[in-house]
């Protein structure tokens, strides 16, 4: 098969390229954010225990997603860099080894979910009803997790070669199927039996499996920059090490949010259960602001990696600068909406008077972190794309575990709940300072030498 002279990531004007690759990802991420809210909405209609069971499954599910996405990010960075350097064989082997890692990871989590789901909920000291519902939910989500791992991997192969439009289709179709099937399987509409919490899990894995099949088809039919071959495939230790050099920091980065959330819940419960509810509502709301920036991040990584591999310093730098401006702009819009309409936003969740009293100042204070966070996300994508994913891991650990949790705990000693929310903007401000230092180091040691061809 003939190789194109140059992928669009090396020749298209940067602003047009970033928008063309990122906008489809932003749309699909927004659909994912909508799904998160709708899914919780339907589960809550079963019972409060059902909602609690699904919430307590979050750490396990988040770990699955973190491993899938982190491995995909490592494949994305190495594959795009190899294409930019015109190393076709390395690109093909990267894709093949990435699929192998997805299959192995899925098998490990499937076994863990089937064997240890009940123990996972018992360890969290849940009630018998929550243990039963949570076990039913997690055994399905984890036991059929091959859909999640294959979906993420094959979508990353499409992203790595600039075909983000197809990933928008796969993610959107998967999320829409999930949203449609949630009430059908939860409540037993039409010919389907009432499955309750297990129905929510079944809807989730069904959407993932359909999205995975679509991503596989799109790669086979439309992704001509890489050629997968089962016959010639051999596992490569070097490629796997390169994938995880970027992927492991991303896995850790995404996983520590579970620790941070658990820690914040423990701090906030000392004030009231309503404080915890407000924090969880914020988590749902902030996804609508962060998801477009994460979509921008997913579009930027292959662009930066490709032009780094092609030694095109000017295009690489322009992509980072434009990405920072776009991210800050998106975050400013989100900040303005939350600052102006916190009560209306909380009313979507049928907030009580107590929740409004706590939630209005909470949303206004926490959302101050948005502008800082936009810069931090793009800085993290730059580190990943340039093969320094460990730097983004360090920034995330410092922000969430070294600054945010200790600051929240110390501020909670004042017994003034409003002060506790200040930990969020304080931690993101600290992360900006660290990101700037790491970016200067990266430009000096990695980007500047590109001038010396």
Mean of residue pLDDT values: 85
**Oligomeric form:** single chain
The span between the termini is 30 Å
For the largest beta-sheet, the strand count, sense and barrel status come to:
none
What is this entry, summarized?
This protein has 453 residues and is an all-alpha fold. The chain has helices spanning 14-44, 48-56, 58-84, 88-123, 128-143, 146-160, 164-187, 197-222, 237-268, 273-309, 313-340, 342-347, 353-366, 370-385, 389-412, 417-420, 423-447.
Describe this structure in words.
It contains 17 helices and no strands. α2 packs across α5 (128-143). It is 82% helix and 0% strand.
Features:
453 residues, mainly alpha, 82% helix, 17 helices, globular, single chain, 0% strand
Write the layout of secondary structure elements.
Blueprint: H1 14-44, H2 48-56, H3 58-84, H4 88-123, H5 128-143, H6 146-160, H7 164-187, H8 197-222, H9 237-268, H10 273-309, H11 313-340, H12 342-347, H13 353-366, H14 370-385, H15 389-412, H16 417-420, H17 423-447
Helix pairs in contact: 1-7, 1-10, 2-5, 3-4, 3-6, 3-9, 3-10, 4-5, 4-6, 5-8, 6-7, 6-8, 7-8, 9-15, 10-11, 10-13, 10-14, 11-14, 14-15, 14-17, 15-17
